[in-house]
Amino acid sequence: MSVATAGKTGATARRGVGRDRFENGLFKVLKPIVIVLLLIVAVFPFYYMVLLSFRSLDSLLQNPGALWISIEELDLATYLEVLAPVSDGGQGFVVFMRNSLLVALSTVVLTLLVSIPGAYAVSRLRFFGRRQVSALFLAVYFFPAILLAVPLFVFFTQLGLRGSLVALVVVYVSQVAAVSIYTLRNYFATVPVSLEEAAAIDGCGRLQTMWRITLPLAMPALVSNGLFIFMIAWNEFLFALLFLVEKRDSWTVSLGLSQLSGSIEVPTTVLMAGSVILTLPIIILFFASERLLVGGLTAGAEKG
Hints:
Elements: H1 3-53, H2 57-62, H3 77-83, H4 93-124, H5 130-140, H6 145-159, H7 165-188, H8 193-201, H9 206-217, H10 219-235, H11 238-244, H12 253-261, H13 268-288, H14 290-294
């Protein structure tokens, strides 16, 4: 190699090293800035909603743009009004939360009972039309809910179940079961087959293998799937309005919140308190299950 060629190669290498240093330095500066901006965008609306829910109406009218209030200004009357029963002049959100919790938990349990064996069968068993069935599960989820609203309304009215939480749970399970099977199938496919074969050698049947091997390893997927189902059932509004609007004692929390937002007599502070009550359970569930959501329990499960 000539001296000129070696010099050019060295100059190119130095330019590459200099560019890498510049990019690393730039990313090092921009990374915290971007993280802070994203946190502000994500957290500030919720912070302001919580702040409004603890302010009295007089304080809000005097200084609506305040981003901080003193302890003396904190007012729990809005939450008391939202949670108090209607007979006491409140909004009855305790009953709405009980109904929503019952519907959401029932939907999660029934959907997982249906989707776990279905997803396992699609991912492990070989049968005619296996690929078409997987595509069909996903295609079912593409149908808009409004398309099914009227037929389901007529159907449950004829059965005498309109206004019943049971009908709402059935509708929710039928809506989310397909996508739940599709997502769980993809995760079951990542569980090493050799672990199940080893269990079969030890004398485990198909159900024992699924219960003792596959489900514990798939726990992060089950938790995230259950949280996804819970969020859908907790926040759903269309079918709750369609089936339960005539029976206030069966209202869910999303339906109760829409009643607050649609009333000109309800102060903004009370509406914000209802919004906090609607949002808080989802946040608590997310942070409570964060370890399972981000943990890969299959890591290191199979040795070479």
